Amino acid sequence: MIDAHGPVRFGFRELRNATANFSSDRKLGRGGFGTVYLGYLKRMGMEVAVKRVMTSANTSRGEQEFIAEVNSISKLSHRNLVKLIGWCHERGELLLVYEYFPMGSLDKLLYADARASGAPAPEELTWERRYGIICGVASALEYLHHGSSKRILHRDVKASNVMLDGGYGARLGDFGLARVVQRDGATHHSTRAVAGTRAYMAHESFFTGRASLGTDAYAFGVFALEVGRASDAADAALDGAFDPAEAERAVKLALACCHPNPRERPSMRAAVQVLAGGAQAPEPPLVKPPFVWPPGGGLQQEIELARVGVLFTGARAQSSFCLMTSSSISGR
């Protein structure tokens, strides 16, 4: 059930007209669950991004994503979150209406040939802006985990899900995989299948099928490292123009968030304090810690996961390890 006391419910005809019948000329992008179009709502006098969720008679995945997104962010209000304006469930169509950000998603500025597409050049992602983006996403996750009335796990933090406003402010969006965890002490959400984008997923996710505060923190760590140093071109663009103290805080925090042991990762509340300079950044270990599941070791086990390969976990001869024998991992 979709909560009725949330964003505006639109009619299909209005959204069809707003997007010129979902014209290919209006296409902004395509993701794992649907296509996003640029629309113009005459009654509101504003441009919007309209996501047309893919549906199939063979699966309810698209509808599940639709309901999850509406319910999880309908009442959220934070400066670093993309605002859901409305939705439509009519004629077998599932549509979501968001704020529109002309600058697009962060990944396009980090990696794409910006000049060819007419977008701002990568040189405009100064260190100050990069650090602000890292801080903004951290603040959004802290709000989802600790600040809203319901604890929400995003489950898909990555550069392509971060939009940029006109001032290069970060707006975390795409809540299709997000799940609400009630405030009864629960800190995780169990799923039947591994969900998320694999390059950003914590190792334990493949064993437990669970999303947690720690798996969101891990994804944030990968994201922070990515934004801090996306490419050699970024290094040239920064040309030494960065704050060494901020850079050290960001890197140390990112490494801590990516710790193989989920118990060692900082909370997003602690992460925000570190980035603001209100707390010391955790010191990374001198030697890269191994991944062991479950944490604390145990007997050696061999596990085979679809699309991942054979994994060996546990303790053997007082040395704990996890070995991936296959790297056939693809993104969502």
UniProtKB/TrEMBL annotation:
Transmembrane segments: none annotated. It comes from the Eukaryota. PROSITE patterns: PROTEIN_KINASE_ATP, PROTEIN_KINASE_DOM, PROTEIN_KINASE_ST. ATP binds at residue 51. The keyword Ubl conjugation does not apply. GO terms for biological process: response to other organism. Residues 22-292 form the Protein kinase domain. Its EC number is 2.7.11.1. This is non-specific serine/threonine protein kinase.
